[in-house]
Amino acid sequence: MAQSRTSHDFYWYDPPLRGQLSITKLHVPARLKRTARQSPYQITINQDFEGVIDACATLADDRKETWINDGIRDLFVALHHAGHAHSVEAHDKNGTLVGGLYGLALGGAFMGESMFSRATDASKIALIGLCAQLWKQGFTVLDTQYINDHLTQFGAYEIPRDDYLTQLQAALSHPCSFSKPQQKFIDIEIIKQYVSIL
Fold this sequence. Notes:
This protein is an alpha+beta fold. It has helices spanning about 30-40, 50-55, 70-80, 120-135, 150, 160-170, 190-195; strands spanning about 15-20, 40-45, 85-90, 95-105, 110-115, 140-145, 155-160.
């Protein structure tokens, strides 16, 4: 993470408590479940990685600063081209990118980095789509690093560093593919199946 958008350096953070979301026990409020089933947005995978990370790094009224500087952006774009970093995008009916998130997939672990929203529930639906994809592909760890109010509503929790490292080691030895070859979309039926198990 960088200290600010304009910083030239970035740092490795290893917090004593690590934020997590349960893939199989994600808490989705009833209203949001209904919205997800109605498919208000088209959810895509890796179709606009740079658009997502740039939107996550954009300052706004509710985001006065960001930890994504040019160095981090360039690094993650390179990781994306190498097949390790992935984005999930939410597009409205006009095809406009209105929400999304990106992160790093290693073995059976996905480390969520940042998300953004420009329309009602867009980032929330993208997160549900991400979790549906991770569930379908057999991932076991969804690391949020830290928790905030947005993630708490989904049941985010913290575990001690040692417990996290034990879970991460097991997940790293569990081979998973983030998406199927040539996959561009997360099928609404997969999202409906996923939401039904929560």
